[in-house]
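Whiteboard transcription, Tuesday session. T.W. wrote the C-alpha cells on the left side:
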C-alpha cells in the first residue's frame, strides 16, 4: 500500500471534526468508523496512522464526565509533544522535506494559528525558568531542524487545548476569570518541542493569556522525577528490558531481511542502518505523505515500513508479558505520581494551589506512567497524546473525592490496577481518591517485589 492509499483509508475510518473543518454533520456521519470493517488492532499501517494523529479527525472525548452532583476540583494533564521532525536521519539519503514554519495556507490548519504566533512573539522571557528562556517559542525553520515541532504538532496541541477549554473552563468553570499564577502549574522538559507544545496547548486552553501570570518550570528528567531520580534498581530493570528487546529482535527473521534489504539500498552496513533507527525517519515520511527515499539501488518502501512497524507492535506485546518494563515503570513513574497525589490531596483539603497542572513531556514519560497504572490496553503514546487525572468532589458528601484517568479522551479509570475491581467491592460510581493514594504510597511497591514498602527500599534492594 502506498502512503496516499493509507491516508485515504484513514480519512474513511476516522470522523472528521465538524467544528474545525466546517464539515456538515451529515457528511460527518458518513465518515463514522464502521466497527465491522475496522481492521484488527495489529494492522501496522492502521496503527501508524493512529500514531501520526493527523489533525482534522475528531475523537471520542470523555473528559469532564461525572454525575451532576460532582464538582471538578483539579485537573492534571500529561502530554507528549506534537508531531516532530525525526531525531535521526537514514544515512546517504535525502532527509524528508518538511517545512516547520507556521503558515495559514498549509494543512493542517487551526483557526487560532496566526493568533498563537503573534501572541508568542510578545512572550517575555520572565515567564520561563532557565534554560527555557533561551528556546524559541514556536517552530520557524523552512527546513525543519532535527526534532523540531511541526505545524502539525502545533495544531494538535491547539486542538487539545481548545478541547480542554470547552470542557474544563466553559462547562466546569475550573478556573475563575481572574485566575492567578499559583492556580496554574506548568512544567516542561528543556526541548523546544515540549515547550512549544505546552505553549500551544496553553494558548488553546487560555487564548491570549496574560504572559505576566504564567510561569513554565523546567524539568531536567524525562521521568519528571525531580529530586528523586537516583534509583539503581530502576536502572537494572531497564538494562534487562533492553537485553530482552535485543534478543527479541534477533528472533525476527523477516525484520533482519528487511534491514538487510534497506542497508543494500542505501549502501551502508546493516549495523549502521539499525543504529540510525530508520523507523523514526520513515514515520515522518509516512505521517507527512512524503515518499520514502530512493537511491540508485532502489527505494525504501511501504513493505519495509510495515515489517518494522509490525515488529514494534510485537515488541510492545512481549514487553508487557515479560514485566521487566513494568518493574522499570513502577519505579520510574513513582515520583511524578507521588507528586500528583500530593497536589490532589492538597486540593481536596481545600488548600490554595493549583487547579490546572500541565506537564509537557515525551513518550518516555507517558509510557511508564501508563504501564505503572496497569493500562496494558493503552496504545504507545502517539504524537500529542494526552493523559489526564481529574479530581472530583461529591457535593453531597464534600469529604469524599474521586479520580478519573483519561488517555486520549478515553476513560481508563476502571482499567487501572487501583480501580479495576472497584465495582465488585463498592457501589460507588466513581473511583475514590484513596485508591490511587494507597496504590502510589504502598501497593505499587508490593506489585514490584512483594516486599518493599517504599520508594527508597524498592530502589535499593539487593538482587532485584
Ligand atoms: C477573584 O475575584 C474574586 C471575586 O470576584 C475575589 O474574591 C478574589 O479575591 C479574586 N482573586 C484574585 C486573585 O484576584
Ligand atoms: C499525498 O501526496 C501525493 C503526491 O505525492 C498527492 O497527490 C496526494 O494528494 C497526497 N495525499 C494527501 C492525503 O495529502
Ligand atoms: C512523596 O511525597 C511526599 C510528600 O507527600 C514526600 O515527602 C516524599 O519525599 C515523596 N517521595 C518521593 C519518592 O518522591
Ligand atoms: C520478603 O522478605 C523476606 C524476609 O526478608 C524474604 O524471606 C522473602 O523471600 C522476601 N520475598 C520476596 C518476594 O522478595
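and on the right, the sequence the group agreed on:
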Amino acid at each position: 500500500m502506498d502512503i496516499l492509499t493509507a491516508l485515504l483509508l484513514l480519512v474513511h475510518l476516522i470522523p472528521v471534526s465538524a467544528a474545525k473543518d466546517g464539515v456538515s454533520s451529515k457528511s460527518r456521519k458518513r465518515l463514522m468508523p464502521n466497527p465491522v470493517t475496522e481492521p484488527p488492532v495489529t494492522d501496522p499501517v492502521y496503527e501508524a496512522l493512529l500514531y501520526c494523529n493527523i489533525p482534522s479527525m475528531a475523537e471520542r472525548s470523555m473528559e469532564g464526565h461525572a454525575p451532576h452532583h460532582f464538582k471538578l476540583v483539579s485537573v492534571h494533564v500529561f502530554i507528549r509533544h506534537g508531531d516532530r521532525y525525526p531525531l535521526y536521519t537514514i544515512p546517504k539519503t535525502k532527509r524528508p522535506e518538511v517545512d516547520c514554519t507556521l503558515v495559514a495556507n498549509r494543512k493542517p490548519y487551526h483557526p487560532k494559528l496566526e493568533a498563537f504566533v503573534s501572541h508568542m512573539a510578545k512572550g517575555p522571557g520572565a515567564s520561563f525558568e532557565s534554560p527555557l528562556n533561551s528556546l524559541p517559542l514556536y517552530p520557524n525553520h523552512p527546513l525543519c531542524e532535527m526534532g523540531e515541532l511541526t505545524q502539525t504538532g502545533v495544531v494538535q496541541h491547539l486542538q487539545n487545548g481548545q478541547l480542554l477549554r470547552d470542557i474544563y473552563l466553559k462547562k466546569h468553570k475550573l478556573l475563575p476569570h481572574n485566575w492567578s499564577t499559583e492556580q496554574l502549574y506548568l512544567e516542561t522538559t528543556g526541548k523546544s518541542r515540549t515547550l512549544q507544545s505546552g505553549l500551544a496547548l496553553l494558548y488553546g486552553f487560555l487564548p491570549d493569556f496574560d504572559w505576566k501570570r504564567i510561569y513554565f518550570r523546567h524539568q531536567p528528567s524525562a521521568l519528571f522525577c525531580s529530586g528523586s531520580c537516583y534509583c539503581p534498581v530502576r536502572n537494572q530493570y531497564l538494562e534487562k528490558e533492553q537485553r530482552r528487546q535485543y534478543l527479541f529482535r534477533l528472533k525476527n527473521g523477516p525484520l533482519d531481511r528487511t534491514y538487510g534489504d534497506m542497508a543494500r539500498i542505501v549502501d551502508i552496513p546493516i549495523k549502521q542502518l539499525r543504529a540510525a533507527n530508520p523507523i523514526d525517519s520513515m514515520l515522518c515520511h509516512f505521517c507527512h505523505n512524503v515518499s520514502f527515499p530512493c537511491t540508485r539501488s532502489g527505494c525504501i518502501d511501504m513493505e519495509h515500513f510495515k515489517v518494522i512497524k509490525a515488529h514494534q507492535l510485537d515488541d510492545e506485546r512481549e514487553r508487557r508479558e515479560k514485566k521487566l518494563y513494568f518493574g522499570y515503570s513502577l519505579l520510574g513513574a513513582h515520583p511524578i505520581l507521588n507528586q500528583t497525589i500530593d497536589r490532589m490531596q492538597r486540593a481536596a483539603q481545600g488548600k490554595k494551589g493549583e487547579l490546572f497542572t500541565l506537564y509537557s513531556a515525551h513518550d518516555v514519560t507517558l509510557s511508564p506512567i501508563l504501564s505503572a497504572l496497569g493500562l496494558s490496553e493503552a496504545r504507545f503514546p502517539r504524537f500529542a497524546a494526552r493523559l489526564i487525572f481529574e479530581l472530583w468532589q461529591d457535593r453531597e458528601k464534600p469529604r469524599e473525592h474521586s479520580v478519573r484517568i483519561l488517555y486520549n479522551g478515553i476513560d481508563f479509570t476502571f482499567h487501572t490496577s487501583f480501580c479495576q475491581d472497584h465495582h465488585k467491592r463498592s457501589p460507588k460510581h466513581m473511583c475514590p481518591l484513596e485508591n490511587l493514594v494507597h496504590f502510589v504510597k504502598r501497593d505499587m511497591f508490593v506489585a514490584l517485589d512483594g516486599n518493599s514498602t517504599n520508594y527508597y527500599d524498592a530502589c535499593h534492594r539487593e538482587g532485584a
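Someone added at the bottom: Residues 4-36 have pLDDT under 50 and may be disordered.
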